[in-house]
Amino acid sequence: MHGKPLIYLDSAATTPKPRAVIEAIDTHYSTGTANVHRAAHELSVEATEGFESARQRIADFINAGSSNEIIYTRSATEAINLVANAWGVSSLERGDEILITAMEHHANIVPWQLLRERLGIELKVIPIDADGMLSLDDVKNLISDRTRLLSATWVSNATGTVNPIHEMISMARESGAVTMVDATQALPHQPVDVQALGADFIVFSGHKMYGPTGIGCLWGRESILEAMPPWQGGGDMIDQVTFEKTTFNTLPWKFEAGTPHIAGAIGLGAAVDWLSGLGMQAVADSEAHLVEKLASTLDAIPRVELIGRPTHRAAAVSFNVDGLHPHDVGTMLDRHGVAIRTGHHCAQPTMQHFNVPATARASLGVFNNESDIDALDKALRRVIEVFG
Asked: Which one of 62, 157, 204, 339 is at 20 to 30 Å from 190 when CA atoms are compared?
């Protein structure tokens, strides 16, 4: 990149794709292109087998009770919108409360605001402190007899903060609330067991876990998914259609209207195979060391201020340089071959909390090592020296 070895530190935005994922997608398009669930010819049979086999492997990856609990979506964002428009519209009424955190991605804020305008529900926000962490006491105090849903991120995409999600879920469930976890930034970095987690829904995105773009998943408890009405109508989500009445397909296809992203699902299946081969506990252990080195390295550079200092952090560190705009920092680091993210990270309320318009963010993947952090250190010191 610009004549320098590429140092990629932007996996929180999207991950590079392993060769196994690229080859799985290429094989589908090169030798197996066909629609799924719709034909008896061999290509369609093979495409359907690849599509549904990937669903089962994704279910196994998160220890789902059944592959019927895995709903393919376009993204984690669409998965949250599915819950809002299927479960939310059918289950909530005026005065009901939804509880989120102050560190949410916009995707876990805006759908609930739209529902607030539509249904008259209340949206309550768990605050965060100067270190970018929330308090379980605040969670407990904000849960009321009107709380119907706790929807919270497991890991902040802006600061890397890891929330005490198991305890939060337990508190919410004790009050009778439904729980949803945005696991987008958790799944690529640690083992996830949805049965042990105890939530009712989790959402995640393929392209942040070494899979293709345009594919994500909603996992939900089978009983709650069964009770939810469809969100979108069209092909493959139907059982019978007449002009008088339509009956709907069984899970998981009830929520998958139209031709799906077949190659995306196959690619995501390859990605979970690849991650499973590495071992998610090994990934977590390796990255825990690297993210601590990343934070301490940045903290030691003069004029660099870390944005958020959580006691438990996963894979990402946000920072600013005194006197320099984050976009200038990112642009100049790029000239050194170092790719980071700059901006508000689709988390503007988090930026407002820290009283900054934007940050620079370095984030790690399984392919990074200590030499990448050393390269960032050298390049950032040089950028600060040049700008003066």
From this structure: 339
